């Protein structure tokens, strides 16, 4: 039986208990899917799962602004990050919003006819490059926490999906068929068009201190969700020794948003520093992670829980590089 998962074997949803079961409940209600692969793959690390869901929910789903507009931002991010899984997912979700012609136009690689929609798609793609000012916003300033949170959420999720999922969404690649994309989108329409109550996911987060919420989030629920994901994802540093942590952080801090080639200059060898290599691949080119990379790092003590945490650590370092450069930008908030 085929599986959408690479390198891990998440437990079936029916065996979920506690916090994981609560997240599944909200996913079914607010996302419209009982077991979306992008979150099932995180269930091996519940500390990552809950805040990753909270950030997506409070920005894309419950945050202010047009759902179509936020889907275009998420699509732009996914295109820039070369994540075919997420590109297809957001094309389907555009169908769910009712914008069928727009969904198929972007599926063909064409620019939206509406200039405002084209600016949103372009802005999402541009956000991959650290140091590029997020302003002028192609959305109302009051909607900034939701749109900025959506972009950062998918800079994280794209990396998780590219690292730990196969590219296809449906069996036999059926998502390549226009009628199938439309049909799946229509099945998700009731959840996508339902108004979600802001802040409902925050009860799923651990009650401990997560550090300050970013200024761009203002007083919205996006802020604590982002802070909780930052706290949980950076825990993965403990899977690397001090020298590897330093190498990974220095490399990501110097990253300019480009897609690096697989050279010794960009990534350490898997024989010498497999953990650092895996974390850096997750940050900068997760679609290049191979079974050889995972096997070289994995030891008997390294469970799926450890692998998800290490990938999430690398992924979030890239998110942090992008987000922190916004704060330093003269045009930033």
- What is the percentage of strand-forming residues? under 5%
Helix- and strand-based class?
Answer: mainly alpha
- Unreliable sequence segments: 329-333
- Average of per-residue pLDDT values: 93
**Residue share in helices?**
55-70%
- How far apart the termini lie comes to 49 Å
The ordered string of helix (H) and strand (E) elements is: HHHHHHHHHHHHHH
The count of strands amounts to 0
Net shape? globular
- What is the radius of gyration? 19 Å
Largest sheet, described in full?
none
Topology summary:
Elements: H1 18-31, H2 37-40, H3 46-61, H4 67-80, H5 84-97, H6 100-107, H7 115-126, H8 144-164, H9 178-193, H10 222-234, H11 242-253, H12 274-284, H13 291-297, H14 304-328
Helix pairs in contact: 1-3, 3-8, 3-10, 4-5, 4-7, 4-8, 5-6, 5-9, 8-14, 10-14, 11-12, 11-14, 12-13, 12-14
How would you describe the overall organization of this protein?
By secondary structure, this protein is an all-alpha fold. The protein contains 14 helices and no strands. Helix 5 crosses helix 9 (178-193) and helix 11 (242-253) packs parallel to helix 12. The longest helix is centred in the C-terminal third of the chain and has 25 residues, at 304-328.
Keyword list:
333 residues; mainly alpha; 14 helices; 56% helix; disordered C terminus
Outline:
The protein has helices at 18-31, 37-40, 46-61, 67-80, 84-97, 100-107, 115-126, 144-164, 178-193, 222-234, 242-253, 274-284, 291-297, 304-328. 56% of the residues lie in helices and 0% in strands.
């Amino acid at each position: 039986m085929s599986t959408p998962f690479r390198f891990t074997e998440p437990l079936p949803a029916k065996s979920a208990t506690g916090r994981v079961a609560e997240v599944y409940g909200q996913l079914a209600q607010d996302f419209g899917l009982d077991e979306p692969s992008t979150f099932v793959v995180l269930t091996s690390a519940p500390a990552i799962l809950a805040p990753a869901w909270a950030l997506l929910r409070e920005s894309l789903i419950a945050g202010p602004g047009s759902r179509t507009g936020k889907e275009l931002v998420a699509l732009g991010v996914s295109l820039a990050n070369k994540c075919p899984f997420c590109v297809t997912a957001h094309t389907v979700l555009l169908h769910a919003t009712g914008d069928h012609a727009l969904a198929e136009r972007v599926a063909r690689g064409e620019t939206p006819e509406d200039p405002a929609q084209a600016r949103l798609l372009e802005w999402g793609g541009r956000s991959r490059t650290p140091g590029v000012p997020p302003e002028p916003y192609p959305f109302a300033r009051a909607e900034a926490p939701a749109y900025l949170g959506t972009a950062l959420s998918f800079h994280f999720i794209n990396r998780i999906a590219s690292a730990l999922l196969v590219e296809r969404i449906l069996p036999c690649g059926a998502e390549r068929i226009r009628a199938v994309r439309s049909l799946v989108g229509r099945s998700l329409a009731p959840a996508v068009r339902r108004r979600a109550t802001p802040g409902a996911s925050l009860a799923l987060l651990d009650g401990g201190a997560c550090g300050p919420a970013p200024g761009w989030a203002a007083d919205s629920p996006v802020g604590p969700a982002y802070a909780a994901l930052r706290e949980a994802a950076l825990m993965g540093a403990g899977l690397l020794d001090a020298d590897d942590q330093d190498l990974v952080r220095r490399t990501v801090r110097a990253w300019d948003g480009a897609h690096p080639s697989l050279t010794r200059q960009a990534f350490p060898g898997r024989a010498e520093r497999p953990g650092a290599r895996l974390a850096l691949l997750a940050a900068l080119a997760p679609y290049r992670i191979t079974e050889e990379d995972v096997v070289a790092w994995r030891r008997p003590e390294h469970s799926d829980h450890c692998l998800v945490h290490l990938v999430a650590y690398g992924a979030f370092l890239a998110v942090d590089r992008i987000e922190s450069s916004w704060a330093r930008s003269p045009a930033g908030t």
